[in-house]
Write a structure and sequence with these properties.
2 copies of one chain form a homodimer. Chain A has 6 helices and 3 strands. Chain A is globular and about 55 Å long. In chain A, helix 1 packs across helix 5. Chain A is mostly helical and 144 residues long. In chain A, a hairpin with a 7-residue loop joins strand 2 and strand 3. In chain A, strands 1-3-2 form a 3-stranded antiparallel beta sheet. At the A-B interface, helix 1, helix 5 and helix 6 of A face helix 1, helix 5 and helix 6 of B. Chain B binds a DNA duplex (30 and 30 nucleotides) through helix 4.
Chain lengths: 144, 144
Amino acid sequence: MTRKPSQETTSAWARLVRVKQGLLAAVENDLKAAGFPALAWYDALLELSRAQHGMLRPVELEKHMLLPQYSTSRLIDRLAEAGLAERKTCPIDGRGHYVAITQAGRNLQKKMWDTYSAAIERHVGAKLSNKDAAQLCDLLGRLA
Amino acid sequence: MTRKPSQETTSAWARLVRVKQGLLAAVENDLKAAGFPALAWYDALLELSRAQHGMLRPVELEKHMLLPQYSTSRLIDRLAEAGLAERKTCPIDGRGHYVAITQAGRNLQKKMWDTYSAAIERHVGAKLSNKDAAQLCDLLGRLA
DNA sequence: TCAAGGTTGATGCAAATGCATTGAATTGAT
DNA sequence: ATCAATTCAATGCATTTGCATCAACCTTGA
C-alpha cells in the first residue's frame, strides 16, 4: 500500500515535468537551428567516443541511454546510414555485434558540443549559481 | 559571445536529461500498466478541469502544456474521439473554439490520479525528504 | 548431447510526431 | 473602408515511435 505523495513531492514532480518539456525543447531547438541532428545522436556519439576503442554493444548503449531496445536499434541504423558509426561483428557473442564510432562521428560530436554547450550555458548556467547547480545535481542524483 | 558552462552546470544538465529519461519512462509505464492513457492526456485533462467552466482555448492549453501547436490540436482530436473532451464553438473569436472537458474526462482524471500519485510517491517521494523535494522544486523553478 | 529457457538484436505494422502549409478570422495602419 | 500583417487552428505527408514478434545464438541442467 503506497501512501499519497506530499505536497512538496508533488510540486517537485510537476516542475520536473514542466522544466523537461520546456528546457529540452529549447536546447533541441538550438541544435536544430544550427543544422545539427537531435540530442539523442549526440548522446550516443558521446557514449561511443568514451567507450573502449570507441565501440559498444547495442545492449550497453541501450543501458547507458535508458532507451528501449528497438529505439537503440534504429538509432544505430541512422547513425550508420549517416556514416557516423558502423556495425562490427562481435567475436565473443554470435548473436550481437559492436557499434563503433567513425572519425566522422567523432568530428561531429566535437562540433556539436560548441552549440550544445552554449545552449546549456544559456538555458541553465545563466540561471543558476555554481552552488545551486551542484545542489540540483545532487538532488537529481538521488532520483536516478 | 556565450562562455562555456561550468562543470557544475554541465553535470546538473546531464543528470536532468538522465533523470527525465528514466523517471518519466517509469511513471508512464506505471500508468500504462494500469491500463491508462499517457501522461499528456492526464495533464490536459487536469488543465481543463481546473479552468473556468472546464474549458480552454486550444492556444491556452498549448501554452500551459508547452506543446507545439499541431501537437495540441491532435491531442484534442484524441481526447474528443475518446469522449473525454469536446470542441465548442467560440462566441468571441470566430477563428477559434473552446475545448471542454466532459464528465467522463473528469472521472478519468480522478481515477488516473490514484495510479499517478502512487507512481510519484514511489519514484520521487520515497527518495527525497520533504525538505529536499521543496529545495528541488525551488531550483527547478528558477529554470522555468 | 540436447531440449528449455534466456539474451541479443531486427522488423512489420499501426499510431504518433514534426514540418510546412493552408484557410479562415481578427487586428492594425493608413 | 481597405488591405497587409498577424493569430488561430487543422492537415497532408514523410519520418519516427511503440508494440509485438521473430530469428539467431547462448546457457543451463538433466
